Amino acid sequence: xxxxxxxxxxxxxxxxxxxxxxxxxxxxxxxxxxxxxxxxxxxxxxxxxxxxxxxxxxxxxxxxxxxxxxxxxxxxxxxxxxxxxxxxxxxxxxxxxxxxxxxxxxxxxxxxxxxxxxxxxxxxxxxxxxxxxxxxxxxxxxxxxxxxxxxxxxxxxxxxxxxxxxxxxxxxxxxxxxxxxxxxxxxxxxxxxxxxxxxxxxxxxxxxxxxxxxxxxxxxxxxxxxxxxxxxxxxxxxxxxxxxxxxxxxxxxxxxxxxxxxxxxxxxxxxxxxxxxxxxxx
Length: 282
Fold this sequence. Notes:
InterPro entries: NA-bd_OB-fold, Ribos_protein_bS1-like, S1_domain. GO terms for molecular function: mRNA binding; structural constituent of ribosome. The protein is mostly beta strands. The chain has three domains: 8-99, CATH 2.40.50.140; 102-191, CATH 2.40.50.140; 195-273, CATH 2.40.50.140. 12% of the residues lie in helices and 37% in strands. The chain has a five-stranded mixed β-barrel. A five-stranded mixed beta barrel has the order 6-7-8-10-9. A five-stranded antiparallel β-sheet has the order 13-12-11-14-15. The radius of gyration is 27 Å and the shape is elongated.
């Protein structure tokens, strides 16, 4: 840095000020600018009035809805220090953490892979909220823990109520601290053995299986070959003779024989063929 503000002496004062800050500590200041974009809020910090050094990103303004509308230029704030960069002359702040110190401390103490217990507090169309044992209340949501749909179960389901119910006791694996909403992202399915991996262990490529058609799509059909295990039969693999649409050959609920042509463990993808089972299929 050089030539910014009051020159070299100003730069040195800025660096000394920032180096004295500690991540996790609190600082106060005045909102200098409110950007209606991804930039969030700029703050002039008490103790260094020369220029704004603090920034509060949109994710750290508040855990309540529409936080940007609640912050105005000239407003006094208290925020927690998230990161300090003396070289760039910048400190990242969180107002949300300062507003909810008990919640922030609880979430910050969690570690990836930790097993947490709690009670299903609410089932929403986008996921499930969990009231965690020993966790504080959330200022907005019915629980501080959240399980997204993909993390509810290894098996396919139409509604979260097929997997859990309100009031049910659960154990979940902690995935991450979601600072956008101030919640613990959890996985319920991580507590179960992945049925696909078990299936892959016992099923080599080339094996013929019996299954039932569950879905028709423009480029093929899905066939359930085991509990919770579905594989795709591409359109070209439905019959020896070309077909324009899957319904020309099979329908939902039909019992079929298929051959395993590919097992992708990492992506949990099973590819099947109907035409390779018997040359008589047409």
